[in-house]
Backbone:
């Protein structure tokens, strides 16, 4: 692997990829800019969201928060609101914290150095490498699942991608493929090839620019790569919520910073014994998180005495809201679906 000839082979594959990208790369709004703020926002949004699904969110977010200063000055609730629909809300909270960090530690100027970028809240090695290569030309591969999949297939490497050394292993390979002064375009090319051509399922090998070099394709073994040991099984978790209503108002409270759904709003999870005569089981919603299968039971409690409703809210730190006002708040997906469901039923 370390011979000159093999290094030239790696570079040849990198050049084929780049040549393909220059003709077939996707025309996306964030491709026409080197503004690190915009590249950062797009990298965070599209980490867990498909481009087609997240593009409107990206445009709206950039329109409302066009620069670091505007984002840093915004209220937490508003940032979460603009994130609504993208899920994984901790990403929005981290963006907000990192914007404040840039203002406080970097005098409001987006850092240019890889390690400084990596020090920002919520920014991992992949995102830091993507920003520093695309915006500042740093020669670093932005290694993610696309790199693992494409490189495993092209070179028929049976390196287990769930191994903790996979990142450094594939980073070293990717560096050998990277043509000089083209780090940003090379990383973007890999993103596009991985999502448009060398997809996890049904790769389009017939039109792939690497099909002549690709060992897995030529050996008829595409589905053996990338190699990955079995995932840990998701565990089951049951949650109970109470939608406590009085005169079209209901109770909510903001979650803390621990466990899932950080800083989002939720309903009470317990109610006093005297409410129990008013309870009906209203809906059960099944929801999957990365490592958990959730069963969310929602019970409806209708209180007719406002005094009891208000006292319970006061003593337990709940705020009151109504369906219309709740649109301005961010809820975990199952509760958001529940609210939509009761709204549609009215
Ligand atoms: S030939 Fe097929 S498997 Fe190989 S890199 Fe291209 S799309 Fe992926």
Residues:
């Amino acid at each position: 692997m370390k011979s000159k000839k093999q290094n030239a082979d790696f570079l040849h594959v990198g050049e084929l990829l780049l040549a393909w990208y220059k003709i077939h790369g996707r025309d996306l709004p964030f491709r026409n800019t080197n503004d690190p703020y915009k590249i950062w926002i797009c990298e965070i949004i599209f980490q867990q969201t498909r481009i087609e699904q997240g593009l409107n969110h990206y445009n709206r977010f950039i329109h409302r928060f066009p620069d670091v200063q505007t984002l840093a000055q915004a209220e937490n609730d508003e940032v979460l609101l603009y994130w609504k629909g993208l899920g994984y809300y901790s990403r929005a909270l981290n963006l907000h914290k990192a914007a404040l960090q840039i203002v406080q530690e970097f005098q409001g100027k987006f850092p240019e150095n890889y390690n400084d970028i990596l020090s920002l809240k919520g920014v991992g090695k992949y995102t830091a490498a993507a920003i520093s290569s695309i915006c500042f030309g740093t020669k670093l591969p932005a290694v993610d699942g696309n790199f693992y999949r494409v490189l495993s297939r092209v070179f028929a490497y049976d390196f287990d991608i769930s191994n903790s050394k996979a990142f450094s292993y594939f980073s070293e390979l990717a560096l050998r493929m990277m043509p000089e002064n083209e780090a940003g375009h090379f990383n973007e090319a890999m993103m596009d090839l991985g999502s448009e051509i060398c997809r996890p399922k049904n790769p389009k090998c017939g039109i792939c620019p690497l099909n002549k070099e690709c060992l897995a394709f030529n050996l008829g073994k595409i589905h053996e790569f990338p190699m990955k040991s079995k995932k840990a099984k998701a565990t089951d978790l049951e949650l109970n919520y109470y939608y406590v209503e009085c005169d079209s108002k209901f109770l909510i409270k903001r979650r803390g910073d621990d466990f899932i759904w950080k800083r989002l709003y939720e309903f009470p999870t317990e109610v006093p014994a005297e409410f129990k005569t008013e309870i009906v089981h209203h809906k059960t919603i099944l929801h999957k998180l990365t490592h958990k299968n959730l069963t969310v039971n929602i019970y409806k409690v209708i209180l007719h005495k406002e005094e009891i409703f208000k006292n319970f809210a006061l003593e337990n730190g709940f705020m009151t809201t109504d369906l219309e006002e709740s649109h301005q708040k961010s809820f975990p997906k199952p509760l958001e679906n529940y609210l939509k469901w009761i709204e549609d039923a009215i």
